[in-house]
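Hello forum,

I keep getting stuck at the same step: I have a sequence, I want structure tokens, and every attempt I make locally crashes halfway through. Rather than fight my setup again tonight, could one of you with a working pipeline run this one for me? It's a single chain of 299 residues.
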Amino acid sequence: MTGLSTRNAIVVGVDGSRTGLSAALWAAGVASRLHCRLVVACVATHPEYYFSNAAFLRSPEQPTQALQNAKVVVSGAIEFVRSNYADLDVVSTVLEGPVVAKLVALSEDARMVVLGNGGANVVSSLLLGSTALGVANHAHCPVVLWRGDHEPPESNHHRVVVGIDGSESGEEAIAHAFEYASAFGVPLVALHAWQPDTLPVHYPVADALHPVAVQAEAEAGLLAACIAGWAERYPDVVVIRATERGSAADALLAQAGSTDLLVVGSRGLHRVVGTLLGSTSQDMIHHAPCPVMICRIDD
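Reply #2:
Ran it on my machine without issues. Output:
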């Protein structure tokens, strides 16, 4: 069984946008419930990290100004967080360089990394694009892409939904979903979507119904087996089992409307070798109306 991390810090990336502040508030609420330190981070960057010197000529003041701006952003975010969580252990870090590399480096000692969906400037506009995907693909801990109401997580109290697929990263997702559900006292929807095995085109329709029914029973058994140990570990969590025939992305998105957190593994069983996110996790990042946690197995 996968073990939860003993790292005791949640890192949130901020960029001066309202969305970044809301992500920080959400991360603070989770840190408070999990009794973690909150690290508010801002990466000061400038265009030469993305473009060649021939494409961009800068003055010597620009890096200094970017660093000063980052310090102001972090200071404002910490003040905002402490106005809601006065007793929370909050620290700041301002880094300079390529955003993905710096955030991935911070993830080495983090329990999770939280990023807002979108923002106000060149860097933040990348957060749900190449930056978010880059961090989610290479982070050493779960990554949460925040999207939703601009309220702390305590104000929601709906439920957690976790995608079950029997994969190793899916097991990691189950662990973190149970932890969150227990911390916030919300029910957990364990959802497993499956596709019928392909049958020959000449297969009789009447005979085809039987193997599909058998497969449905087997898929329900897979779901039960995947969550059994975690349900014993978290007896306080009310678990709602759901099996859906069809696309995993469609089934998860249908559940996401009144959900505090959607948790998925980075890649399913039928994955391409490599570190890239699978299609389901990418669909959740781009289309889910709630925070999405991507869990991957550290290489």
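The helical segments are 18-34, 61-84, 99-107, 130-138, 168-184, 205-233, 248-255, 279-287. If your local run keeps crashing, start a new thread with the error log.
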